[in-house]
Amino acid sequence: MIKVRNEKIDEAVFMKMREKELSAWPTGREVDLDEAIEYQKSLPPTKNYGYVLQQYKKDGKCGLSPRSGVPVVEEEIKLLHGLYDAGVRLFPFTTDSYTRNRQFERAQKGLEESIRTGQKKLNGYPIINHGVKVTRKVVESVDGAFDPRCSKGANNFVAEIAFASGMTAMPHSFFGWLAGYDKLATPEECVTDIQYMGRLVGYYQEHGVTLSTDLHGWIPNGVIPMYVNIATQIIEGIVASTQGVRSLMPLVNFQGNLAQDLGEFKAIERMYDKYLKQAGFPDTVVAGMIGQQSPLFAFPQDVGRAFGYINYVAMAASLAKLPACSVKTIDEATGVPSLESHMQTYRSANWIFDVMSEQKFEFDSKQVDIEQEMAEKAVSAIIDKVYEMGDGDICVGVVKAVEAGVLDSPFSINVNVRDLCLGARDLYGACRYIDFGNLPIPDEVRKFHMEKIHEREKAEGTKIDYKSSLADFWSLSRGMLCGKTEKSEYEGAIDSFHPAIAEKKPTIITGTSGIDSHVIGTKIISRELRDNGFNVVALGAQTPPEEFIKAAQETNASAILITSLYGMAEMDLQGFRDKCIEAGVGDILLYIGGILGVGIHDFEDDVKTFKKIGFDRVYPPEADVKKSVLDLCGDLRERGII
């Protein structure tokens, strides 16, 4: 039975919920809501995220809204000063992965190790461990507005600490958790959790403090149009408004095709206005849209291409007349960015913003109008269907729609997502669906997509399918919109092993390490293994060491293949081989690949580190998946397993 409803939380009930939330770590005692409200009122307007965004909008300028966060306070303040010097006034504040997943003791250990060694052992700022008093020093260290980032596990606790510390915005994005940050949570749990944060923002609003919520919607993990993303962030805005939020900031994603990007941005503005009024919230303000590079697309490792990618986004944001834009740093692909890369990146983007702000260029295109029309029809159909499924209650509708695949996206982390749809690019690089799954996309829009995909198939003389989708996923990092399904140099090399694999059917365990939510890599390798005849036990994202070992024991597995992209695998997997030995599976093959350390580092150091831990093979993030499967076949044959 679905219990969640789109209803405002009673104040007495909310205060009891807060007591439990703040008791999870000692710094919760530093939060005094009445004092926090007065502190917020004492801050200048330049500290208010929504106000700064509206000023950019009023002045016809585009401000930078980057991602940043390091564990040690002094280094964080140094970073903020550098960002300020590079022209940043909007500071999204990245919390580390342990904090995001409510592992405060591990965050404390990482913080202490970062201080002791002088090296970043966490991939963000552990705001819960630092608490209100310390974080206020950070907020007060620079003139700008702050917006922290978290995921479901600690979202409400982070919001309490952040707002009491003087931060003035935070994502209200439960669909982001389903898409990319929480493996097991049900849609109902996600909605219930976000209602707490919305109620907290609403409480501040009732007492004279306007805080803003940015809405991410369903993060596009694959090459798909933004229809579900737009629909879900509007739903998030309605749920937030019900709890008293009155300032919204939609995040809009750039995917590379300019006409499609601009058309979808125009659709967002109209759709928010339509559905907020329809839901009874005409006084909810859209402070401004924030552009961002689609967060889970592969990022260029080459610095020159990274600059190109960043500056394309900056130019598109300027053409769309967005008041703010989030760009990744030029060393995003290597882990946690350096201060110098932050400054070089933002100076480059600001150059484009400054030059474009002096021009009154109006972008007018029939293609943009068509993309806007398709987006509006699809988004309306999706939202209307969710309302219908919930008998008028948008929260009930969300729970039912995710279960039915009416709200869906490929490569999502969450086990409750259907993952039935798939996309690829058309001949001109616009994102289209090649499989609609159960999405309620109108026939007119479906026909438009299939015509565009067939146009590319005719031009290239090949079927656009799953492999095309993967090639298109990587294409932006390689300086193109449409990917090329080039034949791997290892293509066919595995064929000679197929009879032995079919006979023995070795079991392989796959998953990502620790609390890493980057699931695409492990999904790709799992499919490659299955296609070559292996029995695969896919544990997915956020897999603790004990779960890998337990699965190996229960299935008599021959190998464990781990991917990791968040930089903290070394901490996750300390003593992993020893634990395998203790569990009686000490001779199992161990492979790992991805971004295996925080910050810029030498891959050969990763190899030494993980060989010492006990891994048999270590791969860089750009490694050919067929090469790793071929290596596995060779190692299994050498051991007499196949």
Major sheet: size, sense and barrel closure?
Answer: 7 strands, parallel
Task: Kindly estimate the percentage of residues that lie in beta strands according to DSSP.
Answer: 5-15%
CATH superfamily grouping of one domain: Methylmalonyl-CoA mutase
Q: Given the helix and strand composition, which structural class is it? A: alpha/beta
Please count the beta strands (DSSP E, at least 2 residues each): 16
Q: What fold name stands as the CATH topology of one domain?
A: TIM Barrel
End-to-end separation in angstroms reads 49 Å
Summarize the entry for a quick read.
By secondary structure, this protein is α/β, with parallel strands linked by helices. It is built from 25 helices and 16 strands.
Written account of the structure:
A hairpin with a 5-residue loop joins β10 and β11. Among the domains are: about 10-60 and about 145-355, TIM Barrel (Alpha-Beta Barrel), CATH 3.20.20; about 495-640, Cobalamin-binding domain (Rossmann fold). It is built from 25 helices and 16 strands. The protein is globular. Strands 1, 4, 5, 6, 7, 8 and 9 form a seven-stranded parallel sheet that branches. It has a five-stranded parallel sheet with strand order 13-12-14-15-16, sandwiched between helices. Strands 2-3 form a two-stranded parallel ribbon. With about 650 residues, the protein is α/β, with parallel strands linked by helices. Helix content is about 50%, strand content about 10%.
